[in-house]
Each structure stands twice: as C-alpha cells, then as structure tokens.
Amino acid sequence: MDRERLVETCDVIFRPHLREGKQQDAAHSRQEVIEGIVRVSHCTGEQDQGSHDPVDGGHLESEQSGVTNERQAPSVRMPWVGSTPVQDGGIERRVGKNGREYVTSGELAQFFDELCREEQNEVGDGCAAPVPPTRNSSLAKQSTSAGMSFRSTADVLSQNEGRDRTLTQEVGTVDARDCERASAVALMAWSDNETVLEPKTRREALNSEQREEWQQAELVELEAHRENNTWTECKKERNQRTLTVKWVYALKKDKEGKIERFKARLVARGFGQRPGTDFNVTFAPVVSSESLRVILALCAIRGWNMRQFDVSTAFLNGVLEEEIYIEPPEGLELPPGHCLKLNKALYGLKQSPKCWNSKFTEELSALGFGQATTDQCVYHHKDWHVIVLVYVDDGLVFAETADKCEEVIDLMNRYFKTKKINTGMFLGMEIDRRDNKMTVSQRLYIRELLDKFKMVDCSLSSTPMVNAKDLMNVTGGRLTTEPYRQLVGSLQYIASKTRPDIVYPVNFLSKFLIRAEEKHWTAAKGVLRYLKTTMDYGLVYGTTDVDIEAYSDADFGNDPEKRQSTSGILVLLGGGPVVFSSRKQSNIPQSTAEAEYVAACETCKELVWVTNLLAELGIMYKRPTLWVDNQSAIRQIRNSETLRRSKHVELKYHYVREKYKSELFEVKHVSTKN
Questions:
Q1: Residue 576 is part of a domain; what is its CATH number?
Q2: Helices 289-302 and 592-616: angle between axes, nearest 10 degrees
Q3: pLDDT digits (tens, 9 = 90+) for 275-289
Q4: β-pairing verdict for 91-95 and 84-88
Q5: Distance CA 582, CA 505 (A)
Q6: What are the tens digits of pLDDT across the range 75-96?
Q7: What's this model's pTM, rounded to 2 decimal places?
Q8: How many domains, the chain?
Q9: Fewer CB in a 10 Å sphere around the end CB: N or C, the chain?
Q10: Alpha-carbon span 539 to 432, nearest angstrom
C-alpha cells in the first residue's frame, strides 16, 4: 500500500470516529486494525508482477512503538523491483522506480500513533485508539439501529481500481474468509442522506460503496429463481441458439426518499428473440392512470381501507410455452459447455408480461374476482366488495375493512410470493390520507428530477406556459445537445399522473423532440422551474357523495401551422380530477361553436367511460353534469339543430347528442371567466 492511499484511507475511515469521541471495544486493539489493513491490502491484490519480499518477516511490529504481534499475518506484497531500502528514524521505507513511497507495517503502526495523538489534542484527553467499529461492536450496533449500513475498508481501497471481481476471484491464494475477516475489522458507515447512485453495470455495482448490498440483492434474486424452478441446467447442443442475460439494479425508496431496499433483477436480452419462433403474442395490459384515480377518489368518498402489495419476481410465475435457452448469468457457475433452459418467463423476454398477466388473471378468477371490461387490470369481487388494481407486479387492494384487505393479500400469497408494502408510494406517486381526504402528489419524483438536471438551485417561476409563436418559429439555429427528450419525457410522466396544470405546455414541447433548439430546452427548463415553485401541488379527493362533473373547452385555430384547435377535457369525481387531457382536434373547425362542440363530444366519451366503470363496480352515482362555455354548442347538443354553419360537421361528433338524449348527463353553461 503506498503512503498516499494509506493517508487517504485513515482520514476517511478513522478521523470521524475519533472526533465524535466514540469509545471503542477493548477487545479490538490498534494492532488488530493494522492487521486488518494489511490483510485488506493483500486481498485487494496489491502485489507486484516480479519478485516478492515479505514485510517484517510476516510479523507486525514497530521499532519505535515497541508493539509486537506474535501471530503470523499475511505479508503485504509490494513492487520491490529496483527499489532501495531507506532508513529514516528507525522506520523502514522503500522507494520504487515510479518514485512513489511505500510503507512497511512498522511505519503503519507509528502512523496510527501519530494520528491518535493529533486527534487527542483536538478533542481532548480520553480519546480512544483509532479503531474502527466492527460488526459486533457497540458503535456498529448503534449505527445499524439508526438506519445506517456499512462498507468495508476493502471497498475504499478498491473503489477506483476498476476491477470486476468477486471474492472468489481475488488475486493470489487468499481465502474469501480472510477478506470477510478484514471487512469485519475495518468498516465505514454511509448514511441514507448520501447520494447513492444506481449502477448501470455489474462492474459498477461491485466497485461501488454499496457492494455488499448489491451482492446480497443478487443472492436474493438467484434464490428466487431456484425456488420458482425458473430454469433447468442442460448441455448446450451444437448450433443451439441462446440468449444472454444481464443484471439490472434499482433502489426502492419510500415517500421521504429514504432507501427501503436494494434490488437486483436478472434480465434476458430479449432483443435477440426471433418472431414466430421465440415468441408470438406479447401484449399485456396495465391499469390506466384514469382507473387508478377513479378508485382512489371512491376510496376517499366511501372511506375504504387501502393496502399496497408487491409480487416478488412476478414474471417467474408465468408459464413459458416456447423453448428458450439462456447463457448462465454472472455469479452462477456451470460446467463448460452447459446452458440453462427456461421453464418460466424471465424478465426481458418479449412474452413475459403476457405470461404473467394471464397467470395472475387465472388465479384471481379462481378466487372469485371478475375482470372489468373498461379496464382489464381492475378486478372486483362482488360478494366481498373488494377491488384489486395491478400494474405489472405492483398492486393495490381496496375493501371496507383492513382485515379484508389483509385476507385478500394472504390468499394471493398462496399462489405468488406477495409482500405487503407501507411506503405510501405507488408508481412514483405519493398517496397521503388525512382527515377523510386523500392527496396524490409527486414531490419526491420532482425533487429527483431537479437533481438529475442540476436545477435544484434554479430560480422560481409562477407559470408553466411557453411562448408558442416563438417556439414554432424554427430558424434553423443550433440544435441543443442537452437531454431534451429525457426532460420532456419525465415532464410528460408527471403531467399524466398528478399535474393537469402542465399538460398543455408539455404536449406542446413534445412537438420538437426531433429537432430541439436551445430555446426549446430553455422552455422545458421553465416548466421545471414552475414545478419547483409548486412542488407541493397535487390532486385532492374527499367529498360525501359520488358527484361527477365534467368541463370541456377549446381554443380556435391556435395551431400556427395547420390552424387546428385544441380540446381541453376535465372530469371531476370526489372533488378532484380523475380524467384530464389536452388534445389537438383532427379537423379544422369553421367556427368557435364547432370547436366547442367537438370538445364536448370528446368529454362526453370520457364521461361514458367513467360511468361504465362505476357501474361495473356496483357504485351508485348522481347524474353527471357537463359544463360548456359556448351557448351555440349547447343548443346543438340539446336541440339537435342542423344549421347551415354546422351541417358539415362529421357524423362521429354527433355522439354527444345521442348520449344527451339517453339522459347520460345534463348540459349547463359556465362562464368563460370561471
């Protein structure tokens, strides 16, 4: 170990514990720390390519400190080739050809003595020897109880080494248990407040500070595959086609942004599959955002109980019909010439979502749940009065009592490994229930977005609107090199879930994904500034009656290119928005009345969908009200007038007349100012 890395390691690991005045366990002496550093140095492969010379004959001793450890410790192998021993005050040092100075275990002992004396002068007498906490020490237990996890000194020393090795692949003849013992001697705590990044590759995961957590997540994933009998080991035939796999890592957080768990997923590279041979049907539904908001509104109105669940390794429950082979993943050793035949649908395969959804629907049907026609991922049990929503492997259960919710999750656990979750987060949305009201927001997601695009300290903005005419005036200027698509895509996700106030500007910015200039990037950042200003905004549900109100509106030919109009749609249930959108009309209206009439038709279709969903769930509701701010459009809906100015309107838009005659809703006028 060279002196520079030694100083850096000691400063990072030991100084914080000394300054905090932590008393260390007496059983862990300074000499054991030195032995741990020496052992870690050996485990991390700090050895030369030429001749080797043990330091101090394998003994840990210091001429000046007078401390000797009689136990044999692994020697630190260093690049001695061409080096010259130098005596300096009884401390043996060696200088290599590269000019870097290396230290022996004797100097290592003295260095710790000096470090301790220096810290004693700063924090006062009584400072214990600089021994880091072990897993069994009182400090380690205190840190663990405070929500902290640990990484070893080996992680610090090998953090920037760029090696992708497991403990069983370490250089030399060091046993993996030696590295574990070294990790037990020197540990470093990291708090959840630090920025923990999701590794993109396995190399990054194993070289990160959270290596142990990621390795444990891999073991959990492999154990799940073993329990589910995902694959069968077989001999690879000649010219047999196999798919490769990769590890994907993710952090699961609660609504406060704290890390809940580390997750590793084994994913097949499905882009290598051949259509017609390796897969056929691939479509699988997920619950829509509108259905989720409708059920949440009903939950607030009726006072239902809600529980969240997650199906572990959900895709592994799907039965695979095709014959597919994969290469063994990293971390799983097979004899040469062997591969894995898949028995279950693995993540990454094109047909995996379809297989899982079919299996989930089959088991819920066996429990007596019916699948809604309006949304195939909404399941309802008429006798139990229970509703289940599922989005791939995440779901929500709604029932009149908490016990019934727990019972349904326990029943599902018989067929799938189901976990109960209490994070208050669902699909990036924070669901908060207080005083008979339910609030749905995305504060955490917005904070992460601000941090991702380096906008945490940006200035505030009171409006998300953009200058449409200026942005549409494409001057052929320099295209932006910033991640414009990523930002607009993230804004689109927020707009579609909980923020109807940014739907129009985000949709407008989506027009320039192919050729985005700097002014478009500036406008997108303007929306992000507005989100920072209104980070706490969200959808609020909570009334006593199932009242449905709908609002429709439209501009008139504001598209500067094709002179098309844009429809605005809003449907309220329980006092909060459940359906909202901003859509460009396909036709070119001849008048404001025609544009409003078309918008009313689009809103009518959303009303039909909401009422159909409520009817399927057995929910009684009052007759909805459609509010329109154009008297001419209202007369056309009520009186079925066919005037000279409206006789050219396409037949499909007269759908709103038919539904009004069937008394699906009533039409009322609302002032434009309101």
A1: 3.30.420.10
A2: 60
A3: 888 888 888 999 999
A4: antiparallel
A5: 9
A6: 333 332 333 343 333 334 444 4
A7: 0.67
A8: 4
A9: C
A10: 10
